[in-house]
Amino acid sequence: MELILWRHAEAEKSASGIPDLDRKLTENGKKQAASMAAWLKSRLPKSTRLHVAPSRRTRQTADFLELVYSVERKLGMGADTTDLLSVANWPEGSEAVLIVCHQPSIGRLVSMFIGGAESDMPIKKCGLFWFSTREREHRTQVVLRAAMYPDLI
């Protein structure tokens, strides 16, 4: 199984009167999302399922892929690692899944996969981590396939 975790691109700062869910991408955020989407498009398996948190900034980030996606309330602010894994059907699923959501949810899952324990690992805006599973000696292993940021493209 493939699991790709993508943090939303840079969004407007919180301002009085604007609900957090309605914050939109900045011009820089749009450039970040476009760059990362271009990098992803040539690499994503054709059958990739795309799930997005309900905030405006996550939907705008995902829109740059120009793919159909489902908006998942479970992926909203405050989602925990169990929520992300449940939406992805990890590790039982057989297809690639791309999740676009928020911090600290992504950082917690990345730290669990990489370090074996959940912690508040910082992930920059528009950061992406790609994991897959493989079988070795009758055990399922989690493998980091890619870690990418727009400024590296």
DSSP summary, beta strand count = 6
**Average pLDDT reading:** 95
Amino- and carboxy-terminal Cα gap: 25 Å
Largest sheet strand order: 3-2-4-1-5-6
* Major sheet characteristics: 6 strands, mixed
What is the CATH superfamily? Phosphoglycerate mutase-like
Order of helices and strands: EHEHEHEHEE
**CATH class descriptor:** Alpha Beta
- Quickly give the CATH architecture: 3-Layer(aba) Sandwich
Q: CATH fold name, please?
A: Rossmann fold
Poorly predicted runs of 5 or more residues: none
Number of helices: 4
Molecular shape: globular
Helix-and-strand structural type: alpha/beta
**Fraction of residues in helix:** 25-40%
Share in β-strands: 15-25%
CA gyration radius, whole angstroms: 15 Å
Keywords:
153 residues, alpha/beta, Rossmann fold, 4 helices, 6 strands, 27% helix, globular
3D structure, described in words:
This protein is an alpha/beta fold and 153 residues long. The protein has one domain: Rossmann fold (3-Layer(aba) Sandwich), CATH 3.40.50. Helix content is 27%, strand content 24%. The protein has four helices and six strands. A six-stranded mixed β-sheet has the order 3-2-4-1-5-6. α2 links the parallel β2 and β3. The protein is globular and about 55 Å long.
Short description:
This protein has helices spanning 27-41, 56-63, 81-88, 105-115, and strands at 2-7, 49-52, 70-71, 97-101, 128-136, 139-148. It has four helices and six strands, in the order βαβαβαβαββ.
